[in-house]
Design a protein that fits this description.
mainly alpha
Length: 103
């Protein structure tokens, strides 16, 4: 059963439609996910390998917001040492963090 981040009507067909705007955004985010902190790099690489093909549009937006954060803050959120606050305190970010923690 798909979560709200993975609904059937807005799945990103990364292999079937490599020219879609969402697919291009995922490729851009995968590049931006290369971080200076090895821990983040490992977590994000594993996340992309497992979930990129099934991310829905809200998750892609949440990922873009998380990748704007400094490395230390991002790692604290992924490890659950901090909770999202402000504009990051929304369902897509919480669901994306759960996926990152599961990866």
């Amino acid at each position: 059963m798909p979560t709200s981040l993975e609904t059937s009507h807005d799945r990103i067909p990364t292999v079937a439609d490599p020219d879609s705007a969402a697919s291009a955004e995922l490729r851009r985010l995968r590049w931006r996910a290369r971080r200076g902190m090895l821990e983040n790099d490992l977590l994000l690489t594993r996340f992309f390998d497992r979930y990129a093909a099934t991310l829905a549009l809200p998750a892609i937006g949440a990922l873009a917001c998380l990748l704007e954060l400094p490395d230390g803050h991002l790692l604290d959120l992924v490890l659950g040492q901090e909770q999202p606050q402000g504009v990051l305190d929304c369902a897509p970010v919480h669901e994306l963090l759960a996926l990152l923690r599961a990866a």
